[in-house]
User: Fold this.
Amino acid sequence: MSVRRIAVLLVLLAGLALARPALAVLPGEMLADPALEARARAISAELRCMVCQNQSIDDSDADLAHDLRVRVRERIMAGDADEQVIDYIVARYGEFVLLKPRFSLRNALLWGTPLLLLVAGGIFVLVAARSRKRAETSLSDEEKAALSRILGEAGGKQQGGV
Assistant:
């Protein structure tokens, strides 16, 4: 094969790879009005396919994704605003259907838990370090005398036994 044919083949393959997400939306689903279709595509890009879970419904070939795309377009044709369409889908499928979950009081703990754990761990390390320093205080006079006596006895035994 010539270099030219290989280059053409690579360009065609790259074009097919980039066009793949566009194949998920069927021509029968598309709205006639380009402005409404653009709104539908923008909304579909924010919604998760519940079957694939890592793709938007705009990118997915699953039957459920098809049903959701049709439902989004129906709501747009009914005159709903973008936020109303998203709220409609979320009301039926839960917030998991959103690819970028909303920040709300309901899920604030989920968003804040890593930070709380980091702060709690830092406090634990500081408290542990301070308690260790307190434990390393000097011996009282009685303890020093007892230690000297013990070391003196041990030293005498070692010297005498050698």
